[in-house]
Write a structure and sequence with these properties.
The protein is α+β, with helices and mostly antiparallel strands. The chain contains 5 helices and 9 strands; from the N terminus they run βαββαβββαββααβ. Strands 1, 2, 3, 4, 5, 6, 7, 8 and 9 form a 9-stranded mixed beta sheet that branches. A hairpin with an 8-residue loop joins strand 2 and strand 3. Helix 1 crosses helix 2.
């Protein structure tokens, strides 16, 4: 009888039609759809474990999961067969063997997100970027973003009642850039809290709209109180763009 081997799977997905990555009892997540497709092609029950969890409507340009399976041969047509079963909004890019102890979530060393905003109505950006009427002050928002990078405890940006042991994260990049017809927020860290990026964007937009000054971000972070920070921006503009591992 063949013994189980651990594999990493890299995929991307459009989160519009899903209630996030996570398997859940009363809604369809990406994980459920992927598990079924893998199980069908590999002819055995498959349970994937993701590198994190994305909220409803959030997209992933790069996402990793791991799973254990027996007797798999990584033939050229394996990924093609899996993608043929998956819906058009989920795509597997590669599958590769890893050590038995390798973990998609705990072994990740860096995660990066983007948040997309545009200023003119565009039907092709609907569900993939957030439409704002007025352009905020990007220089002030970058001043505030630099202040955020000075801290590690981001309780004020975290969804309440989560089961994380710590709210500490090490942010290595937080920067707004201008795009054609919009702006884009880049943020990278070793880990993220639930709802963290959307809450940070909402707070920085308060600065960009001149509702608060950049220096006022300091007491917000120091308060460790979610109600002090800005509202969470819509999920449609958020993308998980990169996950890095030391094992690769």
């Amino acid at each position: 009888m063949a013994t189980n081997q651990r594999f990493f799977i890299e995929l991307s997905y459009d989160g519009t039609n899903y209630h996030g990555w996570q398997l859940q009892p009363n809604a369809v997540g990406v994980q459920e759809v992927l598990n079924k497709a893998l199980g069908t092609v590999l002819r055995q029950p498959i349970e994937t474990l993701g590198c994190g969890r994305t909220d409803t409507g959030v997209h992933a340009k790069q996402f990793f999961a791991h799973f254990d399976a027996a007797g798999i041969k990584l033939k050229d047509d394996l990924i093609r067969s899996i993608n043929a079963i998956l819906p058009a909004d989920i795509a597997v890019k590669r599958i590769f063997p890893v050590e038995p102890t390798a973990h998609a979530r705990f072994d990740a060393t860096l995660r990066s997100y983007e948040y997309h905003i545009h200023f003119n109505k565009d039907p092709f950006k609907h569900n993939y970027s957030w439409l704002l009427r007025d352009e905020p002050d990007i220089e002030l928002m970058n001043d505030a973003a630099k202040i955020i990078m000075e801290y590690t405890d981001f309780s004020c940006f975290s969804k309440s009642n989560t089961q994380t042991k710590t709210n500490n994260c090490k942010i290595s990049r937080a920067e707004w850039v201008k795009t054609d017809g919009g702006i884009l927020f880049h943020i990278s860290a070793d880990r993220f809290l639930r709802n963290m990026v959307r809450a940070i964007v909402g707070t920085l937009l308060q600065v960009g709209r001149h509702e608060i000054e950049p220096y006022q971000v300091r007491p917000i972070i120091q308060s460790k109180n979610r109600s002090k920070a800005g509202v969470s921006v819509p999920a449609c503009g958020l993308y998980l763009t990169e996950v890095l591992y030391s094992i690769k």
